[in-house]
Each structure stands twice: as C-alpha cells, then as structure tokens.
Amino acid sequence: MAKMIRKANMPTKTCQVCSLPVTWRRKWSKTWDDVKFCSERCRRTKVKRD
After folding, report:
1. pLDDT tens-digit series, residues 11-41
2. How many CB atoms lie within 10 A of CB 29?
3. Cβ of 42: how many Cβ atoms within 10 Å?
4. Which residues contact 45 (CB under 8 A, 6 or more apart)?
5. Distance between CA atoms of 33 and 30, rounded to whole angstroms?
6. Whole-number Cα distances in Å, 10 to 29, 43, 45, 48
7. What's the whole-model pTM score?
8. What pLDDT shows up at residue 18?
9. What distance in Å separates the CA atoms of residue 4 and residue 2, rounded to the nearest whole number?
10. CA nearest to 8, candidates 20, 23, 18
11. Which residue would you say has higher pLDDT here, 23 or 48?
12. Which residue(s) pair with 22 in the sheet?
C-alpha cells in the first residue's frame, strides 16, 4: 500500500491570474506540468498574450 503524503508536503504552483497558491490534486497527476490556473474562473479571465 502506498504511503500517504501530507498536504503540507504536496507540490504547489502560483496561479498566473490571481497569484494564489495551487496545490497538487490527484486528478491533475497526469497533467500537473500543464496546470496554470487555480480555477475555471481564472482560466476564463486570463489575459491573452500574443
């Protein structure tokens, strides 16, 4: 059985829109490198860069 990882030891990132910390979630395990936003709302309100 896998050892449990405490929430304090999970990787985090900073949201590109609101600068809040984004904590790793199990459903993001395969796409963690692509996660940039903390929520759907931030993703929709992102500034489009050319």
Report:
1. 889 999 999 999 888 888 899 899 999 999 9
2. 8
3. 16
4. 17
5. 8
6. 11, 22, 27, 30
7. 0.66
8. 92
9. 6
10. 23
11. 23
12. 13
